[in-house]
What does this fold into?
Amino acid sequence: LKAELTQAGHQVDVHYLNLELSAELGPDLYAAISGFSGERAYLLGEWLFGVAAFSEAEESDLYLAEFPEIADKLATLDYDLAALRKLREETLPAWVERCATSVRWEDFELIGFTSTFEQNVAALALGAAIKRRLPDSKIIFGGANFDGEMGREFIREFGWIDYVALGEGDVALPALAAAIANGTAPREVPGVEVREGAVVHPAKPAAMARMPDIPAPCYDDYYAALGRLGPDAVLGRRRTRLVVELSRGCWWGEKHHCTFCGLNAAGMEFRSKPASQAYDEVVALAQRYQALNVDAVDNIMDMSYLGELCDKLESSGIDLNVFFEVKANLSRTQLGGLSKAGIKRIQPGLESLSTHLLGLMRKGSTMAMNVRLLKWAHYYDMSVVWNILCGFPGERDEDYYNQAELIPALHHLPPPTSVGRLWLERYSPYFTEKSDYISNVRPIPAYRHAYPQAGLELARIAYFFDYDVSGVASPEAHQAVVRAVEQWRERWRTRRPQLTYRRGPGFITLHDSRAGAVSERVIAGWRARVLERCGDSYHSAGKIAADLQSSSEAVGAAEVREFLDDCVAQRLVIADGGRYLGLALPSRKRA
Ligand code: SF4
It folds into this structure.
């Protein structure tokens, strides 16, 4: 937004008060609160700013009684409830007041807060404090927390908010700034709700920016703040990562919106910067900020980037380490190309190792496809961030017991970070579409504590919802996967099991340490070729037999199937929908 406003001729300062607060509280505590997660969403980062934000803030004990597990989690951080209360009731209110006076807010014609995740109550607290001091100031809120109905409810309820951008701000914010600078009517600006006294003018339909028109971000103020405060004081042992946005929306969700996904709101339409522009921006930002670790915030990588962007990154001679969210359907060749380009960290949205569950999610993937991705990403030294989800209406116990049974065969591949239940998110199909299974949808309880504002309709500002659900598997079935993943993670952390093979003349040798003790075995002749043939990707026995027809040792489909079924029993191969995928990785790196 700063780059866009500057391009339009405005002067803009960005105040990274999050960095100031991290330096004030200490980076470890700050990061722990930011990442405070659990099976229930606590909204801890929001609740902590309640006393600063709301005149009717409730007693801290009410929240802490509702979430008694918070005390145990805090203890693991060497932090206790007394310190947490003091933070909420004294430290943060004083800090917000300081923020309201330490910057000359009166110098700005427009003060904007962009709010995502748990930044909202803090932003409301500071906005209200500034408005108390400077009643003539003009304040706008935007960002994901103000999208659509949520933004309308906030401006309706908080009479001191002047403007709310209801969707993407790229077009709306410069237009509003121009209207203010020129003295024209802000209420004519598309995408912005405008308050005039007690009246709130509804927004005209917003225009969405074309991605090629969005300039590269300007992080000068961020790095200036970091330098002033000291990177160690702000980040501790962590290091910055350069954040880039090369696309918006989701090309998969445009056609098959994953049933649980609440990303994108009204902006599902996929738009991306051309590969050459993406490359130029990434390199220019890396040079300007001397940063080599790059995180793309895109929901899903533009598949066209597998060509020109990867080629340019690979031939650039620059040792970037790039993160991207990708689709699970990437082949071995495509993963190899990403790795050579320096895209070494991926989040592929695997979500499950059950083809039936993936169908319920509308992921368009299968168990075998997900295993193929894990296999070749690991082979090309990429780190994979993924989770297993459970709790999908229509699921069966066997979907989980089958996963638990499969998992020991995958101990040589990177495990998921966690197993979690389905969250009901605003904008997701489970939220917007009528369901026979989901009923009594209501905001999660933490909103009641985070927003103790009598007139605020929580159902209109919430993003996470509780619900009653039927047609889900038993807790025992879910637990079977939880236990299997715990064991997988433990093995991966302590022993890094392997399943590899070396190719000899007419045979392969398999090296297998998944079960603990190392076992070696030789597989020769057509059987070795069959195993290699289903290594890159999954194929039916008939296809593999046909592929081997031209070789000297031709073999029929029935024999191939019998052999592969035996390999499945020995956990050397997985079978999914009549197709087979070998699990062993070549011990030698080949392109
Ligand atoms: S979960 Fe990922 S792939 Fe599915 S719709 Fe959402 S962004 Fe797209």
About this structure: The mean pLDDT is 96. The first helix runs from residue 2 to 7. Residues 253 and 268 are 7 Å apart (CA to CA). Residues 250, 252-253, 257-258, 261, 263, 299-300, 349 surround iron/sulfur cluster (CB under 6 Å).
